Amino acid sequence: MQLIDNLEWRYATKHFDPGKKVSETQLKQIKKAIQLSASSYGLQLYKALIIEDISTREKLKPASWDQQQITEASHLIVFCNYTNLQRKHIDNFLALKSETQQLPLSELKGYGDFMEGKINEKSDEELKHWTAKQTYLALGNLLAACAELKIDACPMEGFEADKYDNILGLSQKGLTASVIAAIGYRSEEDQTQYHRKVRKPTEQLFETI
């Protein structure tokens, strides 16, 4: 299983080589992997910002605990979840489903009403938490895709979301930063690559009931 070999290879890269860049072809493949991620109801209630601009990343670095990956990496991916869910999010998905699967929109109304009903059961805080969790599914696909392409990646929660929201103008779009990932190529000076991977033994991690 090639996936296992790829996951054995990857690690959370601490130092990137700023001179090595992810190609447009590879970036397109990574975007496709994110696009194909599973999400609750298929709604994909998030966006992924791909930040290449170094000046923008310089502004984000202080809000990221001054971690060097922010500016050293080839690209910074910021996963943002929607904070204010509206019926239009459901209707847009149903319109896309109708077009893609050649289904009459009228046949999907019941599904739309069901989704709206379940969503309305959640408080605002629960909705923000729920949409944020969807971004982690997409992050998992990104990490697996990068590992297959032999592109290094570092998922990161060490940042101040409110400052990201301000710098990137996310609040005006009804979004908030949830989790980020720096991608690129490891520096030869990154000693972390030589560390053995630390994981719980399977007999401790799994329990069959």
From TrEMBL:
Keywords: Flavoprotein, FMN, NADP, Oxidoreductase. CDD domains: NfsB-like. Residues 8-185 form the Nitroreductase domain. It comes from the Bacteria. Its cofactor is FMN. The keyword NADP applies. InterPro entries: NfsB-like, Nitroreductase, Nitroreductase-like. GO terms for molecular function: oxidoreductase activity. Belongs to the nitroreductase family. This is NAD(P)H-dependent oxidoreductase. The lineage of its organism: Bacteria, Pseudomonadati, Balneolota, Balneolia, Balneolales.
